[in-house]
Amino acid sequence: MQLELDHISKIYGDLHAVDDLSLTVPEGQWLAIVGSSGSGKTTLMNMIGCMDTPSKGSVTLEGRRLEDLNAAQLADVRKNMIGLVFQKFYLVPHLTAVENVMVAQYYHSVVDEKEALAALDRVGLKERAHHLPGQLSGGEQQRVCIARALINCPKLILADEPTGNLDEKNEKIVLDLFRQLHEQGTTIIVVTHDALVASCAQREIMLNHGVLVGEKWNDEEARKAYEAAGGRPASTGSTAEGAQSGDVPIGFDDPTKAAKTGGEE
Amino acid sequence: MAADMTNRKMFWAMIVGAVFRRRSRAIMAVIASMVGAMTLFCLAAISIAVPQQMNEELRSYGANLIVTATGGMSDETVSTIESTVTGVADAKAAAYRYESVRINSAPYVMAGIDVNEVRNLNRHWNVDGSWPSEGRVLVGRDVADALGVSIGSTVTIGYRGEDSGQPNGDVAGGAGASSGSAASGSSEDKAAGETGQQTRDGRVSTDILDTSGTKFQVAGIVDTGGSEDEIVYAVGSDLTTLAGKRGPDVIEFSSEASEDQLSGLVSKLNKQGAAASAGSTGSTGAADAVTYQAQQVTKMTASNQRIITMLKTLFWIVSLVVLVLTLVGVSTTMASIVSQRRNEIGLRKALGASSLSVAAEFFVESALYGLLGGLIGMGLGYALARVLCAQVFERTLDFSWALGVASVLLSVVLAIIASIPPVRRATRIDPAIVLREE
Asked: What are the transmembrane regions (chain B) (predicted)?
């Protein structure tokens, strides 16, 4: 498995932001982590993205236990293996779109403007390459973020509410980009509370107050392949009510899905 | 942007972007550096230029070299001495001829001078009224008090060279040296000792009641706080009329020579004086021998140095305060910049930037603020120093490239040092804040 979470918890005082979660993700899987605000999605994302460490348990990425790595080694893992997409588009405000893409190249290895322009072309922004973020719309900024995330060909893309601030048109563009990346074999983990975005993923897990409360597959073939490869359902050691503690996934409905799709499904 | 972008170019693109596309904060940082550089350059320029100026100015407040003769110097001797002194460095000179005179039956010393020479050499003299002119004398404060005279009063002065009981040279030497050395007191004591009389208020008590002489009007009263206050000054022609023609006893010089040059000059003049005496003795006999001696005056030089040292200390203290204020100003601005760019720093770290690379970017950015501030501050500091020198010290100030380079470098170093605490905070920023903030 590319990613293995083994009974990880993140505890702040009495609060369990993530409570004893075990999860495995194979290479090429598109996973959505869903849940309401404060359910621990972003905390989980930080731990997977080497930006935070679990209070308990361990995270293994490409066979490397992250708790054994120091800050510099974690930075290396981030720049070499992970592409990050944020809800708030986080771009460096005083750098142009292409410079923002090249920043990722700069910290990774060698700056190549042609590659950066090609990445912007791929997200449909070649003409806006030399504009500052303030001169771009929200959708365009998010597409710059995606271009930056994929510029170093990461094995894993972590996206935190990637369409949270976008209109439907831009949301579709972004989801199409993820679809392309998924088809190329990139592992994608998307944190979202948007049912439509979640439904694009092959697999969904649901968190509620840090506890795993459900798991479902949107792609049956992917599920079979996963299980054939020895993959097991996600699980939690939490004894909280509704926790998915055994080997049997607990299904769940996407409450906003009907509203988002106009009741087609 | 060029297609052949390299990592180095990208580094500078990020720095330039941060400096020139975030102008408001950048301007604050540049202003903080600029004010420091401007003040320091201005203070340094003034603290270098003004002591030089003071040195020159203070030299005009008295002699630093005195040549005394045992008898009146001939024109040839005066010419030799002056050419020897001016051969070493530019110098201002004033010659004095001293004679013993009687006013209201009391003996006083009268000096024959060239007014312009003496006034030019002794700008510190506080003269109430006018300088002497033909028929009018300048009276020392002590003499005026003793005689009870004021400006416009008339005094009758009689020449008592023949009844003074001592050679003119002794009087001349004593009074001449009194301008700058301690020899005055000993000379007066000697004079008093030889006549068995007491010295008081610069005059010698006598029981000879002789009030005859030439009438002079008191043109002014000089008050220096020194031995000059015990002398009556007249123009040279009046003294010649009164006492006959004779050369000066003393020549005072204000030379621009250094201390070492002055010491060498004193030795040279003393050798010349001795040689002249020997030559004169050999050809015309001991009676006509004219020897002269030179001595250096150190009193003014020492006080000059004390004032300059005090001024320099003051400048250093003010500079130190400005230095600290600049550090605080730049540091605060950099802290504000780091705080404002907290998310950006977190983003960079999330993208894989090491703490070292984040620190390097901020240090270079800070150095750039220091460089810009230093360059502008240097220009403004020079303008300010120039105006100050012109208005306050009445002196033009030349631009010092060494000082300019030093102030810019100092500004850069200060900016880097000032940014250490904020940059340390920047490197500790947790990349997770980028995802945490919702």
From this structure: 314-338, 367-393, 399-420
